[in-house]
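Protein modeling request. Please complete all fields; requests missing the sequence field cannot be processed.
Requester role: graduate student
Desired output: 3D structure, token encoding
Chains: 1
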Amino acid sequence: MSNTLLVVVIVVGLAFDFTNGFHDTANYVATWVGTRALSPRAAVAISAGANLAGAFVTTAVAKTVGKGIIDTGLATEKTVLAALLGAILWNLVTWWLGLPSSSTHALIGGLVGAALVQSGSKGVQWHGIVEKVLIPGAVSPAVGFFGAFLLMVLIYRIFFRVPPGVAHRGFRYGQLVSGTWVAFTHGANDAQKTMGVIALALAANGNIHGFYIPTWVKIAAGLTIAAGTYAGGWRIIRTLGQRIYKMQPEHGFAAQIAAGTTLYVGTRYGFPISTTHVVHITVPTVSDGDCVSVIGIRPADLRSEAGLVGCEAPPRLRACCRAGTADRSRSSSCPISTAGSSSSCRTSSSGRSWR
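Delivered output (355 residues):
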């Protein structure tokens, strides 16, 4: 590989890292924006710093991408370049359309496709694909799902009697920690994918002996993904945070903790996990469904209009609560009793459902 072509591969690799920053990071920044815990600009600024810090945690994922997906002895400069260009093209197209797709799978798919064209099936380490990509890729969303579900149940159980306004404010502060955590783990996992590809190119060109990640590669990849993060994926932020799911602060907190922990465990084991897929399973897990029926809390336990932290009562119940004693005529059709003060909304003894 000529030095000129090596420079081209490195530049293109960093370009992919940049697109990864503004593409993938937007998926979890949206949980900050969607709950109004932070403004978009503040969210991406904090995420950029956390991504940079996470890039220096470990190199396990970089080694998987660099030498565990395709045969390094058969890979050429064209193989690496083709894989990167394909992944960048996919990132740009989905970013333009506002679709939260996976940069991880785009890169791995590009590597496998380019290796198949270059060397046939022998150019791909199929056991590595199964053990390091397919199985973790299938398991990680399930882990995120159950983690987010259990955490949400725990939050409802513990903070059930806390006034919604107080709870929302507290969880917004909590999201400063949980959001930084998931940004840190994203940098630890995703920045390493670019490190692995650049190290693969360096090894193929003979610039390094054996496979390892030079310090300058770590710094360059960390700074680039941080810059891409700060550039902001506003299209995807709007899609995930405002158009698909409506979240309360406790939803965002639970989703971020579950997603960040899943990513961290995968990173420690060297699995190139998709941040997009993990976030996309944790966000709807905590946002969708009837939280009352899921965790088994009866309507009789409701003590306010919302009744549960972040679980908004149906419009009919809210209207009855607001009416209070001002309109006794509503009591015959309202599933709650309007007796007593308007600030205290209690269910009637009939035990009728408010759905």
